[in-house]
Design brief:
Layout lengths: L1 H17 L7 H26 L7 H5 L6 H13 L3 H17 L13 E11 L6 H11 L3 E5 L3 H11 L5 E5 L7 E5 L3 E4 L10 E6 L2 E8 L9 H18 L4 E6 L7 H7 L4 E2 H4 L21 E5 L3 E9 L8 E9 L2
Helix pairs in contact: 2-4, 2-5, 4-5, 6-7, 8-9
Length: 338
């Protein structure tokens, strides 16, 4: 009997040791781990966003999808709550608050005060190595934009738009090239050639005569922030920023596939010159344009029409084109007097 009591006492002693005060149960430790890992990853990206740096791979790639980090951050907070991990709850609350602050539309949302001079409908489309050329031609004929910016319009694409749209758009400025290099600006307004932006892909420039006023046009298509090419991406966005600073007193329209969203510091520097995002002015600041197969449910807005202070914007629409991984952006602008 004495032996039995001793065994029972040892068992109780062992059980109380496992649940002893100051020692967290294993399930709570696992919960803290499962909450802490995603919170640490999200915190690193949010920290870069708040600090105004795009850092290095994989930060720029993840920053494009910053609003969607609310999902893992929210899940981590839920796990921390279930695990009764107070530090994790406070940490998660701070991360969620910073994310909520970051996802607000960035930049000036005001409009010009001068009298309206002319309406200008603008379309920008990345046709992915020319594969969506036929779909683009149909959309252009249906929507009748005044100015069309086309990225990745290679040789066959440029020949097709000249043949099919040359009568309606007699003015054009292009950089010829294969695959992703070729780009073209089509216009109903008379164009004067202007210096483009040097880059690994074509970025032509022009000056349009809109109701007797010169409007500087610049197509944007910097290199995407692929691993190993983040530095080149930053430099080419920097060149676009220089154009915005040089001609930002306007009127200026800077449009195309920027391969960057408002959550990239390099793109915000372009906006900080005083340009405004037409989609943001139209209430579509977060509408995804890429990848088209998951938009509008999921994606990033990397295709933009940026305008100087002489323009107001309305009715921004993102349209699906067969054959490309980008959605086309169509927006109605109004040019105002200074």
């Amino acid at each position: 009997m004495s032996s039995t009591r001793t065994s029972s006492d040892a068992s109780r002693s062992s059980g109380s040791s496992a649940d002893a005060p100051g020692r967290r149960p294993r399930w709570r430790l696992l919960g803290a781990w499962w909450a802490g890992v995603p919170l640490a990853a999200v915190s690193a990206v949010v920290g870069c966003r708040v600090a105004g740096t795009d850092a290095v791979t994989p930060v720029p790639q993840v920053l494009a999808f910053l609003p969607w980090l609310l999902v893992p951050a929210g899940a981590a907070v839920a796990v921390a709550l279930l695990a009764r991990w107070r530090t994790g709850l406070v940490w998660g609350a701070v991360v969620l608050a910073l994310l909520a602050w970051c996802v607000r539309p960035y930049g000036d949302g005001g409009g010009p005060e001068g009298a309206a001079v002319a309406g200008v409908r603008v379309l920008t489309s990345n046709v992915e190595f020319g594969r969506a050329t036929g779909s683009l031609i149909r959309v252009v004929r249906r929507e009748r934009p005044d100015i069309v910016f086309v990225e990745e319009c290679e040789y066959t694409c440029q020949a097709a738009v000249r043949r099919e749209l040359g009568g309606e758009y007699p003015y054009r400025e292009a950089v010829p090239g294969g695959t992703s290099v070729g780009s073209v600006i089509l216009s109903r307004f008379r164009l004067t050639p202007a210096e483009g932006v040097p880059g690994s892909m074509g970025m032509p420039g022009a000056v349009a005569d809109v109701a007797g006023r010169p409007v500087r046009l610049q197509l944007a298509h910097p290199k995407p922030p692929l691993p190993g090419q983040v530095g080149l991406w930053k430099r080419e966005l920097g060149r676009l920023r220089d154009v915005a600073a040089r001609y930002g007193d306007g009127p200026l329209v800077l449009a195309g596939d920027f391969n960057a969203s408002q959550d990239h510091a390099a793109f915000r520097r372009v906006l900080d010159t005083g340009l405004r995002d037409a989609a943001r002015l139209s209430g579509a600041a977060r509408a995804p344009s890429w990848p088209s197969r998951t938009a509008p449910a999921f994606g990033a807005q990397i295709d933009h029409v940026l305008v100087s202070r002489q323009f107001s914007a309305s009715h921004a629409r993102f349209l699906h084109l067969d054959g490309t991984d980008h959605r086309t952006l169509l927006v109605d602008l109004t040019l105002h007097q200074d």
